[in-house]
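for the recovery benchmark. tokens below, seq after
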């Protein structure tokens, strides 16, 4: 798209909003971004002589289009606007995705109710030269919301505002549609240098638009080779380190007791199970009460605060094999820390290799990088690793059949938290059925992750570091796909 506008004669600046890609800080969810964009225009004005910042065009998609709808209303330097399915109504979005209790308060969003969207800011007097492109089959930004915005700015009675409903097009379908691109080009050409265009008949005018041939390579072969080579690197390092480092150290260790079957040992085991279970449930009760009062957030409460608090408590509840928590962790440092360090180093080397070369390939092919070497990635690591580390510490040295408790205690913990911070089902994600399945399957998924880790630990003689091996790919995936609202 950028190429087409450049070849048509426009200077194009592509902006990466906060919380997206390599930009720092979490998203402001429309609350900060319009002001960011005004600063960017100031920067362009000061540093690029070829750009006419008194007469700028604006094109945006979805969330970015929602920012654009606000920006064009508050900055008179914006002259012409094309918005693809703009996020103009936060209320409409939150009716289908309850972000207020899913995300809650963040460092940049202290109160969602205080954020003004395009319906609050844009009006008949501050909106001009606007084209709205909306997919009729869009389930993310609903067509009726964009149409209501069109009427809100009195577009049906104005010649400089148009609304095109694209039949059969969904969210991505509209963005990738050739005719939608042609509508955009026609609109900008009319307001900048070709007043002979009849914008009241866009369907006919786009027939005169010929797109420039641009065959930029889109092959993902380099990404596939990087993934394959990362797997080979991991396997090769594992074979070497296991054979020459981990196993020689392991064979020198004294035989480790698996369980204490004495009467006293069984009593200790029973008390351990009771204390850990009570602590697990007690921690979620405390978390629920705190977050119901200060930050009604499932992500910050259940997936960050609850695991961190539980991890701290579980460190002080030893198994029946140790007299106290100090003895247990001294034993871990003496016997298990070395295999952990070796295994963890394999994982770190492999993922650093993957990320360095993947991001290099992405930058060379104008694709999305994975900005994992950033402070903004910290919440994602906490969400991805917090729960599994918490459950690892809860289940450490618990007998196999008793580990099934996780399948039950996990859903119970979610239900308790939802009692304090209600989260209604997401209609956009399947409604009540998906909601129930999420609650039921959380414990099952983590239980089988534990089984996978235990299977791998037979080779690596360590289980703790292997949770990183299992979960870091998911963290990388989410950092690659989703913008950083948390």
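predicted aa per position
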């Amino acid at each position: 798209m950028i190429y087409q506008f450049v070849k048509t004669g426009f200077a194009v600046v592509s902006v990466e909003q906060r919380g997206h890609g390599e930009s720092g800080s979490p998203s402001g969810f429309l609350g900060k971004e319009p002001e960011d964009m005004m600063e960017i225009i100031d920067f362009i004005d000061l540093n690029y002589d070829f750009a006419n910042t008194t007469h700028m065009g604006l094109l945006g998609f979805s969330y970015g289009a929602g920012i654009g709808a606000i920006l064009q209303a508050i900055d008179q330097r914006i002259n012409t606007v094309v918005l693809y399915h703009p996020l103009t109504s936060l209320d409409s979005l939150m009716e289908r995705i309850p972000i207020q209790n899913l995300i809650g308060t963040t460092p940049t969003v202290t109160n969602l109710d205080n954020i003004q969207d395009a319906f609050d800011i844009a009006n008949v007097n501050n909106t001009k030269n606007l084209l709205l492109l909306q997919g009729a089959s869009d389930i993310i930004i609903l067509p009726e919301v964009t149409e209501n915005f069109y009427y809100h700015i009195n577009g049906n009675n104005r010649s400089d505002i148009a609304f095109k409903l694209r039949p059969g097009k969904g969210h991505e379908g509209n963005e990738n549609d050739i005719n939608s691109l042609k509508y955009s080009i026609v609109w900008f050409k009319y307001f900048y240098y070709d007043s002979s265009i009849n914008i009241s008949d866009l369907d006919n005018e786009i027939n005169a638009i010929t797109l420039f041939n641009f065959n930029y390579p889109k092959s993902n072969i380099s990404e596939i080779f990087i993934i394959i080579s990362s797997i080979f690197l991991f396997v090769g390092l594992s074979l070497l380190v296991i054979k020459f480092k981990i196993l020689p150290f392991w064979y020198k260790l004294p035989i480790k007791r698996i369980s204490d079957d004495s009467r006293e040992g069984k009593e200790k085991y029973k008390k351990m199970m009771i204390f850990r279970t009570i602590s697990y449930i007690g921690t979620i009760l405390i978390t629920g009460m705190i977050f119901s009062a200060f930050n009604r957030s499932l992500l910050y409460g259940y997936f960050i605060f609850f695991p961190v608090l539980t991890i701290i408590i579980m460190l002080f509840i030893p198994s029946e094999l140790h007299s106290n928590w100090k003895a247990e962790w001294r034993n871990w440092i003496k016997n298990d820390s070395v295999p952990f360090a070796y295994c963890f180093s394999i994982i770190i080397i492999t993922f650093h290799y993957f990320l360095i070369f993947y991001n290099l390939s992405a930058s060379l092919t104008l694709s999305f990088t994975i900005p994992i070497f950033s402070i903004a990635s910290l919440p994602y690591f906490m969400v991805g690793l917090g729960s599994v580390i918490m459950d690892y510490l809860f289940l450490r040295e618990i007998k196999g059949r008793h580990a099934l408790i996780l399948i039950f205690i996990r859903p119970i913990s979610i239900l308790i938290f939802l009692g304090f911070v209600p989260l209604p089902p997401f209609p956009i994600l399947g409604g009540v059925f998906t909601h129930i399945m999420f609650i039921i399957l959380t414990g099952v998924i983590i239980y089988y992750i534990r089984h996978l880790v235990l299977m791998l630990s037979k080779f690596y003689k360590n289980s703790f570091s292997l949770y990183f091996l299992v979960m870091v790919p998911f963290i990388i995936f989410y950092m690659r796909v989703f913008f950083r609202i948390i």
